[in-house]
Amino acid sequence: MSPIGRVFIVLNLALAGGFVVVSGTHLQKQHNYKEQLTQEQDKHKKAVDLLSQQVGQLERERNSFENLKTEKETALGAAQNQIAQLRDENKRLNETTSSQAADIKQLVSLAQSNNTETKAAFAKAQEAFAQSVAAQTVRDEAVRVKDATVAENRGLTNKIAELTDAVAKRDGDIAALTSDKSELQLLVKVAETNGFIRSMAAPNLSGMVTTSSGRLCTIQVTDNPGNINIKDAIEGGKFSFAIYDASGYKGEAFAERFEESANAILCKIFPVKGEIKTGDKAATKTP
Question: What is the pTM (predicted TM-score) of this model?
Answer without folding.
Answer: 0.35
